[in-house]
């Protein structure tokens, strides 16, 4: 074991001691990252340019895609670079920023999932009041609240995590600066320390999960009373993917923060870390676009040759002014 106590930073463990396998992992991460980058960017462009998608559900979807884009960019590009360079060193300030933005964006994701479930609840259970409850100013305030809540969570975790004195080798058994793994480096580490730092995020996530579950209980009870089978199928096809994404994300995050950190990066640790860092931002664009006819039509329009030529001519006209 190398001694990194004289370093001002940390050492992130690699996936494997075999350089060929390390390159294979890095290549897989690169493919997933490019897929997430492309999918989320297309959704942001489509929801911003298509006038038919100017409704609260697509407004929140656009912000979710932006969150996903930032969320995966906090950890994955640095991991890819480290794997290709065969280096795991990360400076103290880089690690601080990574923890800050990772926790802030993860918390914001949970918050916006909650807002999106409430939007679906109002749209399905209270359709006559939808335009009043989810008016543009209310949607903007909801998004601001999402970012503020995420930022406060990130600041709190970062302040607590980096105020604890560290002892011994500064080796983090993860491919990014993971809070549970960093707590293990504390001079006075015990399970209570980890629970104290994770308590706020876990309790907030639990409250959000309960809110989401209650929203969907009301949604499903309303849908089941709809006489038309086609209408029920349409609503279920819209709501079930969202519920799956939320459950998957919260389950993976809760498992990671509540279980005792291990002394090495095992295949199980890697799998669960990928479940909440890489998979959700990569799959969200697929889930929210392929099952939505309006979104698919908007994406076809954005990717069409005619639309590209029209936008190009518009840009030329602007630069000639």
TrEMBL record:
<feature type="transmembrane region" description="Helical">
    <location>
        <begin position="139"/>
        <end position="160"/>
    </location>
</feature>
<keyword id="KW-0297">G-protein coupled receptor</keyword>
<dbReference type="GO" id="GO:0004930">
    <property type="term" value="F:G protein-coupled receptor activity"/>
</dbReference>
<protein>
    <submittedName>
        <fullName>Olfactory receptor family 14 subfamily J member 1</fullName>
    </submittedName>
</protein>
<feature type="transmembrane region" description="Helical">
    <location>
        <begin position="240"/>
        <end position="258"/>
    </location>
</feature>
<dbReference type="GO" id="GO:0005886">
    <property type="term" value="C:plasma membrane"/>
</dbReference>
<keyword id="KW-0716">Sensory transduction</keyword>
<feature type="transmembrane region" description="Helical">
    <location>
        <begin position="96"/>
        <end position="118"/>
    </location>
</feature>
<dbReference type="Pfam" id="PF13853">
    <property type="entry name" value="7tm_4"/>
</dbReference>
<dbReference type="InterPro" id="IPR000725">
    <property type="entry name" value="Olfact_rcpt"/>
</dbReference>
<comment type="function">
    <text>Odorant receptor.</text>
</comment>
<dbReference type="GO" id="GO:0004984">
    <property type="term" value="F:olfactory receptor activity"/>
</dbReference>
<dbReference type="InterPro" id="IPR050516">
    <property type="entry name" value="Olfactory_GPCR"/>
</dbReference>
<keyword id="KW-0552">Olfaction</keyword>
<feature type="transmembrane region" description="Helical">
    <location>
        <begin position="270"/>
        <end position="290"/>
    </location>
</feature>
<feature type="transmembrane region" description="Helical">
    <location>
        <begin position="57"/>
        <end position="76"/>
    </location>
</feature>
<keyword id="KW-0812">Transmembrane</keyword>
<dbReference type="InterPro" id="IPR017452">
    <property type="entry name" value="GPCR_Rhodpsn_7TM"/>
</dbReference>
<keyword id="KW-1133">Transmembrane helix</keyword>
<feature type="domain" description="G-protein coupled receptors family 1 profile">
    <location>
        <begin position="39"/>
        <end position="288"/>
    </location>
</feature>
<keyword id="KW-0675">Receptor</keyword>
<feature type="transmembrane region" description="Helical">
    <location>
        <begin position="195"/>
        <end position="219"/>
    </location>
</feature>
<feature type="transmembrane region" description="Helical">
    <location>
        <begin position="23"/>
        <end position="45"/>
    </location>
</feature>
<keyword id="KW-0807">Transducer</keyword>
<dbReference type="InterPro" id="IPR000276">
    <property type="entry name" value="GPCR_Rhodpsn"/>
</dbReference>
<keyword id="KW-1003">Cell membrane</keyword>
<keyword id="KW-0472">Membrane</keyword>
């Amino acid at each position: 074991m190398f001694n990194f106590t004289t370093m001002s930073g940390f050492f992130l463990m690699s996936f494997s001691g075999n350089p060929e396998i390390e390159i294979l992992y890095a290549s897989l991460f690169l493919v997933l990252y490019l897929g997430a980058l492309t999918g989320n960017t297309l959704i942001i462009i489509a929801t911003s340019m298509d006038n038919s998608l100017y409704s609260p559900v697509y407004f929140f979807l656009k912000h979710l895609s932006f969150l996903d884009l930032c969320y995966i960019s906090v950890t994955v590009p640095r991991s890819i670079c480290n794997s290709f360079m065969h280096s795991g060193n990360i400076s103290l300030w880089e690690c601080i920023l990574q923890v800050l933005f990772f926790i802030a964006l993860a918390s914001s994701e949970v918050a916006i999932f909650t807002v999106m479930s409430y939007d679906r609840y109002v749209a399905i259970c209270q359709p006559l009041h939808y335009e009043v409850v989810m008016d543009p100013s209310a949607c903007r305030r909801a998004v601001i609240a999402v970012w503020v809540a995420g930022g406060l969570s990130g600041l709190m975790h970062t302040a607590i995590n980096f105020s604890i004195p560290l002892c011994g080798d500064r080796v983090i058994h993860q491919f990014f600066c993971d809070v549970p793994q960093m707590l293990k480096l504390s001079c006075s580490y015990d399970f209570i320390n980890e629970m104290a730092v994770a308590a706020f995020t876990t309790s907030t996530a639990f409250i959000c999960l309960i809110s989401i579950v209650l929203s969907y209980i009301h949604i499903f009870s309303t849908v089941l009373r709809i006489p038309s089978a086609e209408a029920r199928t349409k609503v279920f096809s819209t709501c079930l993917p969202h519920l799956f994404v939320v459950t998957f994300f919260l389950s993976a995050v809760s498992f990671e923060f509540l279980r005792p950190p291990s002394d090495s990066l095992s295949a199980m640790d890697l799998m669960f870390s990928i479940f909440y860092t890489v998979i959700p931002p990569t799959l969200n664009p697929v889930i929210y676009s392929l099952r939505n006819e309006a979104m698919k039509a908007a994406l076809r329009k954005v990717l069409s040759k005619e639309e590209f030529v029209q936008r190009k001519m518009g840009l030329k006209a602007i630069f000639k002014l």
